[in-house]
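YM 10:42: Glycoside hydrolase family 127 protein sequence, as discussed on the call
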Amino acid sequence: MTHKDPAQGASPSRRAFTVAVAGVPAALAQQTPQPPPASASETAVQNPVPPGVRPPTGEAPLFAQPLVFTRKEAPRRALPFSLTQVRLLPGPCLEASEANRAYMLRLGADRLLHTFRLNAGLPTSANPLGGWEDPKSELRGHFTGHYLSACALRFASAGDLELKARGDEIVAGLARCQEALSAGGYLSAFPIELFNRLEQGKRVWAPFYTIHKIMAGLLDMYLHAGNRQALEVASRMADWADRWSDSKGLRPMQQILKEEFGGMNEVLYNMAAAAHEDRWATAGDRFHKLAFVTPLAERRDELRNLHTNTHIPQVIGAARRFELTSDVRFRDAAEFFWYSVVSARTYATGGSSNAEAWLTNPGRLSLEWKASTHHQECCCAYNMMKLTRQLYSWSGDPRYFDYYERNLFNHRLGTIEHATGHSTYFLSLAPGAWKTLNTDDQSFWCCTGSALEEFAKLNDSIYFYGPDGITVNLFVASELNATQQGVRLRQETRFPDEPLTGIVIQATPAAAWTLRLRIPAWTTSARVKVNGKAIEATPQAGSYLSLTRAWKKGDRIDLEMPMRLTVESLPDDPGLQAFLYGPIVLAGDLGMAGLTEDLIRNKQGPQVSKAPIEVPALRASGAAPEDWIKPDGSSPLSFRIAGSNPPIALKPLHRLWGRFAVYWRVSG
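YM 10:58: structure's back
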């Protein structure tokens, strides 16, 4: 989401960086699923177009004809267990979840409803929120949608009755506002006049972006918290969006979609699926920006200079359309987009973007890295993980979770402050950078809202099921109650501090069934024991190990995953290097020198130029990283650079809250 002064409302121009360079694959491509060949079908995608090659002259564009929604759900190889079936146990994910909950409870329903009531002409005396929720901000109301989603997700994932009641209260308040507005189902915290400006091509700050957040929050309250009123309010909003978009025509809508519109396509598809109303899916079809999705379906990377988090939600919507229709054009677009971002536009941490955009051609990350200090918008990491989870369900390819895991541990778990529940906007990779945070009631960035959702559902991707059995994809302390399979299990782990996990069978049917363990690509020589005895099979890194037997209550499976030090260079500058131990990015711990609360609080990113420090270059004193990067023994995952002066300690990036460095200039 592009930053704007809340008091101005007008949308500034996108940051436009034009760096004319050729693309090369990034190091992460080695662990990235290759895009499968385009599926044979009765559409124009029968002959796949290789990456970087335009279709032959005269060939009809893939989306030459208007979209027609026809439901034909695509099969999926793996499905996640519901949030209600998985519970977090003590560990880093539970700590982040509880910190997030504490922050949520400090925000009252009346304050979150204040601008909605003002817009509807209803009485309100609440203390207004600030930042992007200020009564003069054109994006006001978006955070309330995120908050509803988080309330619903928290109830499903932890049985949190207090936050469910808070969500129910907000839903009832929004219903009263919608009724008072009496505008055909329209509901927002800003007047409908913003949509008149949008239609006229005038400057306006992303009104459909906010509508998406509100609708998604209401739908989550229905799906995850059983609030029927929330579905009724969301349904009236969907009717309004359907009528509004239908009245514009194809060409005017394509012009309108040049302004950020969040995941309107996705939420309308989800509404259609939840309420069995395909007319809302037809409305969702109007929210595909064809100038963006067409190159992706034709396997062309034209992402340079695009605003990152404007477009990832559009791809999530495209992926959802494939799931509902089996239209392979949208599958190809989603898979090629993911491959392009992860293989050639992603840093060692798993994040992407700088200054909210992809600034360069693929593989030119060192140029992008140097362009500003505002790397890796957190919304982008959140949405890339959502997309990854979708794509994994189609193929079951374990490499999707190698990426997901890296993003989870290095980026997401490292961007929430446990003492306050506050979170970051950018995760900067500039030398000497630090993490900056929102405040309780004066920020409300897009990333504040997505963090609220993220840390309310950290149990959503640990376990999957399908025809292959029950799959363990993440090493997170947790319990699974797989009621349909008659299985209960408990995962005991201190990962990543210890490179192992234990699975204890707590309940099982008498018949044999399969437990599948992800053997991550980063491990060197995984070992598995069942009830203390090593199995005969040799687990292969980057695959699954399937264990099929008639399990008994009390059976225990232990998976050991030795970690090793690795180096990842930026693809276009091998001398700029990051260090990892297993999947964990190790950053230089550079202390707190020069940092003040004013530099940390309510700042979207670190203003490194206001408090510069010198970050030394390094000289490798051996061919392998373990020759000159040594464990220091102070704590798990702590290392030191041998011979450095002054001494440099390397620690997991997700645990550092002072200054740090991830990429180093290294000479041989």
